[in-house]
Design the sequence.
DNA sequence: TATGAATGAGGCTTCATTCAT
DNA sequence: CATGAATGAAGCCTCATTCAT
C-alpha cells in the first residue's frame, strides 16, 4: 500500500508523506474515527515517527487544515485575472475554486466537513480562510455595483449577505460535485444527478444563478413576498 | 440531573427522552465523541435501558436522523401554501425551513454537520431527505417557468443544477445563522455580521439573490464568460 | 493469584481489594514502574473497573497514601496511654509505630519511599502526616521538660529539631527492620545485621539512644566540639 | 541548550557532562520518569552518544550512583581528623556529611531517594556505602566506650543498633535540610522550621541528641519502660 | 567522534456493550 | 420496567534503544 518501503528519508519529505496520509484518512473517516495507526500505516512509517514530527493528533489535524486552506486560497487567488472586470474576476475565481476542490477532494472534505465539525480550535482556522474569501467576493460585488454606476442601491450589509450566500452556494455545489464523483461504490450518487459537472460548468451555473440576479438588484428591482 | 428521577415511565415517553438527549449530545460532541454514558445520564436513565430500547449507538443515531429529517420535511411542507404562485410557494418553503432550523438548531446540526460526516449508513438518510427537497424546489422552478410561459428556455438538467445551488445556499445560510446565534463566547460569530437574521429576512435575501436571476434566465438572458 | 474469581461483588469491597493490590504493587515497583495492568490483575478485576471506581493512576495513588497514612496515625495514637508520663507516652507511641510498620511493611514503604519521591501532590499528604507526628513528639519532649522542672533550658526551636531527629531515626529504624525482614531472596539483609528486632526492642533502642541524652540536655549539659 | 555546542570533546569530559546531566535529571524526575532524551539534551549531546559511552539507562544510573556514593564517602572520610578523640571524629564526620549533602543536593537525592526506591540492582550499591559508614560509626562508638573505660557495658549488637539509628537520624536531618532549602515555592518547607541549618549546627544538634545519651548508656544507665 | 532517522513495546485511558438481578 | 457490576477492544502517546552515515 503506502509508498514503497524506502528507509532514511529526509524529514521534510517524510512530513509531507505523513500529511498526505493524514488528509486522506481524516477525509475518509472523520477526525475522531481516524486513527493515528491508520495514518502511520498509510504514510508507510511507524507511529512514533508521526509523533516525533507532528507531536499529536490535534497538531497534525491543525497542520493539515492550515496546509489545505493555504493551498485553496492560493489556487483561487492565482486563478483570477487581476485587472479584468468584476464579473470576469468572479467567474475566474469560481472556476479556480471548483477546479481545485475537484482536484483535491480530500483536502476540501477536510476543510468543509471535518474542520467545522470539531470544535473551535480547528473551526477558527477554516473560518478565517472563509472570511478572507467572503471579503474578496464582497469586494467584487461592490466593484461591480460601482462599475454599473449604482453604488447607492446596495447597502454594505446587504452586499455581505449576498457574498455569504454566494460562497455558501459555491461550497454546496463543490461538495455535491465531489459526492457525484465518488467511485461507483457510493450509493449517494444514485440519488439525484449522475454526471459530474466540469469546473467551468459549475462556475457558469453559479454566475447565471447569482450574477444575473445581482444585476436586477443593482437596479433596485427587489422581490417582495406580497 | 437530566430529568427529575421518575420511575416507571411508559416506553414511548422514555424513548423520546432518550432521543432528545441523543440529539443534544450528538450535536454538541459529534457522533464519535458522544458517549452513551453522557446520553444516558442526560436522559436520566441507566445505560442498559438505552440499549434495551435503541439497541446500539448506530441505531440510535440512525433513529435520531430519521426523526429530525422527518420533522424538517414536515415543517417545510406544512409551510407552503398549496395553491399559491410558484415564487410565493418557494418563499413560504424557505421561510418554513429557516424557522425550523432556527427553532431546532441541534437537530439541524446533526443533520447537516454530523450525519454527512460519518459514513454512508447515515449520509444516505440525509441524502434522501435532501433529494426530496431538491425535487420539490426543482418542481417549483419548472412551474414558475411554465407560469412565465417560457418552459422551453430551461433544460431539465439546468433546473436541477439551479435547485441544487438554491438548496445549498439555503443550507449555508441556515448554518451561518445558527453559528451567529451561539452564545457570545463563540469567536466564530465575530467574523462577518453579528445579528442573527430572522427567518423572513433570510428567505427574502435568498429570493432576491436567486429569484431575480432566475427571472432573467427564463427570458433567455444568460451570463457568459466572454 | 488474586482472590478466587468471585463475580458481582459490592463496590465497597471491590474498592478495598483494588487498594490492597495497589499498595502492594506500588510498594514493590514504585509509582511509575507499577502498571495499572498489574494492579488490576492482582486485584482480580479488569482494568476498566479500576478506572470506573478510582478514576486514574494518580487518584489511586493518592487514595492509597491517604488510607495508609490514616491507618498509621490511628495506630500510633491508639498505642499511647493518655495520662501516663511523657517518657512512657513516647515509648508507647514508638512501640505502636514499629509494630504497625512491621505489620504493614508495604504501606510503610509506600509512605516512606514512594510518596516522598514523586512530586508535591503526593508528598504533601505524607508531609502533613509527618508534621502531625512531629508535633506530637515535640509536645511530649516539652512536657517532659516541664515534668523535670527545667522548662527554660530548651528553646522551642531546639525541641523541634530534636523531635525531627527522633522521628527521622525512628523512620530509619523502621525501614531498616523491614529491609532485614524481607524474605531470604533479598541480598540487602546480608549486609549489616541479620535478625529483625521486635517493636519493643526497637523502641527501647531509640529511647535509650535519645531519651537519656535528652535528660542531660535538660540539665544544661551540652556537647561542644572544642 | 545545555552546554554550548562544542564538537570533538575528549571522552572523559563528555562522560562527565553526561553524568552531571543524569544526576540532575534523575534527582528532579526520578529514575523512571527521567528520559534519556532529557538527559542527552541537558548534556548537550545526541542520544546515540550517550548510549555509545554509557550503554543503557540502567548502567548510566548505576554509574551515577557509584560516582555519587564514592564522592560522599570520600568527603566524609576526608573530614575526620584521624587521631582525634572518638567524639571529635564523629563530629567531624557528621559535619563533613552535612556539608557534602548540602553542596550536592542532587547527588544526595539520587542516593537517598531514588536509588533505594528502584529495586535491588541499585539499592545494593547504596546499601554497601551505607554499611561502610555504619561500620565506621560503630567503630567510633566502640572506641569511645573503650576510651571511657567501660567496654563491657555495651554489647556489639547494641552498638550496631545505635550506629544505625544515628546514621538514620543524620540522613533524615540532611534530607530535611535540603527540603527546607528548596526555593520558596515548595509547600513542604512550610511545615516545620524555615531556616536551613548550617552543617555545623546540624552536626551539633545530632551530637547533643545522641552523644549525651550514649554517655549515660556507657555508664550503665538505661531507660526502661516500667 | 558524533548524529539524524527510525521503531517495537508498552503504559494510561475510554468506550460500546452485556450480565445478573 | 430498570440497574449496578463488569469487560474486550482499541486509541493516544512515550520511551529506551538501534541503524546508517
Sequence:
Amino acid at each position: 500500500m503506502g509508498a514503497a518501503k524506502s528507509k532514511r528519508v529526509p524529514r521534510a519529505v517524510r512530513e509531507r508523506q505523513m500529511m498526505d496520509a493524514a488528509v486522506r484518512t481524516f477525509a475518509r473517516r472523520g477526525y475522531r474515527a481516524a486513527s493515528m495507526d491508520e495514518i502511520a500505516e498509510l504514510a508507510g512509517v511507524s507511529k512514533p515517527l508521526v509523533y516525533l514530527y507532528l507531536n499529536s493528533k490535534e497538531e497534525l489535524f491543525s497542520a493539515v487544515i492550515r496546509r489545505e486552506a493555504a493551498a485553496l486560497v492560493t489556487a483561487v487567488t492565482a486563478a483570477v485575472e487581476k485587472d479584468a472586470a468584476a464579473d470576469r474576476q468572479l467567474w475566474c475565481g469560481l472556476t479556480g475554486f471548483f477546479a481545485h476542490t475537484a482536484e483535491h477532494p480530500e483536502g476540501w472534505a477536510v476543510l468543509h466537513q471535518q474542520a467545522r465539525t470539531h470544535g473551535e480550535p480547528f473551526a477558527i482556522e477554516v473560518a478565517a480562510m472563509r472570511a478572507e474569501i467572503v471579503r474578496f467576493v464582497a469586494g467584487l460585488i461592490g466593484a461591480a455595483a460601482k462599475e454599473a454606476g449604482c453604488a447607492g442601491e446596495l447597502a454594505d450589509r446587504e452586499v455581505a449577505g449576498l457574498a455569504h450566500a454566494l460562497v455558501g452556494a459555491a461550497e454546496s455545489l463543490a461538495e455535491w460535485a465531489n459526492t457525484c464523483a465518488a467511485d461507483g461504490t457510493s450509493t449517494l450518487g444514485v440519488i439525484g444527478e449522475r454526471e459530474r459537472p466540469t469546473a467551468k460548468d459549475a462556475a457558469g451555473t453559479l454566475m447565471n444563478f447569482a450574477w444575473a440576479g445581482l444585476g436586477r438588484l443593482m437596479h433596485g428591482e427587489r422581490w417582495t413576498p406580497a
Summary: The domain at 64-218 of chain C is CATH 1.10.357.10 (Tetracycline Repressor; domain 2).
